[in-house]
């Protein structure tokens, strides 16, 4: 699944195992000043391009389906490229080497990647210090208490591209929400 905001691109690589979907990896990247000026189509295409480049070693030789909430991308892979820019053609050619299908998914069902592509809008968290938050979570008594109590929170360790350490996130609502310790609030 991929998604794009005005600030970043995001993707989650998932594997279907029987009736469940297991995340294998996450990717997001802040857009440069130039990339922020791209059209919606070009930003969405850029999201797939960067995601495929990031996960290429896991995609090679497998059936890969891309899910996007941007319908024009679905048709971009089946039409002639007479009106496409050279950059779009380069991106489409690279992407076509790794994916077998691209499908539309309604934006409301694209919760995970919406979270990652929109994470740059969060003002509460200094995104340059994911490691600091992860370390703070490790020793936070409030988090330890919440994990042991019967609250409705589903706190799970999750890995993000900005850190090698896991961040504990609540996933009970279907949206990945990092637990922010008091010192980071």
Automatic annotation (TrEMBL):
<dbReference type="GO" id="GO:0004519">
    <property type="term" value="F:endonuclease activity"/>
</dbReference>
<dbReference type="GO" id="GO:0003964">
    <property type="term" value="F:RNA-directed DNA polymerase activity"/>
</dbReference>
<dbReference type="GO" id="GO:0016787">
    <property type="term" value="F:hydrolase activity"/>
</dbReference>
<dbReference type="InterPro" id="IPR050951">
    <property type="entry name" value="Retrovirus_Pol_polyprotein"/>
</dbReference>
<protein>
    <recommendedName>
        <fullName>Reverse transcriptase RNase H-like domain-containing protein</fullName>
    </recommendedName>
</protein>
<keyword id="KW-0548">Nucleotidyltransferase</keyword>
<dbReference type="InterPro" id="IPR041373">
    <property type="entry name" value="RT_RNaseH"/>
</dbReference>
<keyword id="KW-0695">RNA-directed DNA polymerase</keyword>
<keyword id="KW-0808">Transferase</keyword>
<keyword id="KW-0540">Nuclease</keyword>
<keyword id="KW-0378">Hydrolase</keyword>
<keyword id="KW-0255">Endonuclease</keyword>
<feature type="domain" description="Reverse transcriptase RNase H-like">
    <location>
        <begin position="2"/>
        <end position="98"/>
    </location>
</feature>
<dbReference type="Pfam" id="PF17917">
    <property type="entry name" value="RT_RNaseH"/>
</dbReference>
<dbReference type="InterPro" id="IPR043502">
    <property type="entry name" value="DNA/RNA_pol_sf"/>
</dbReference>
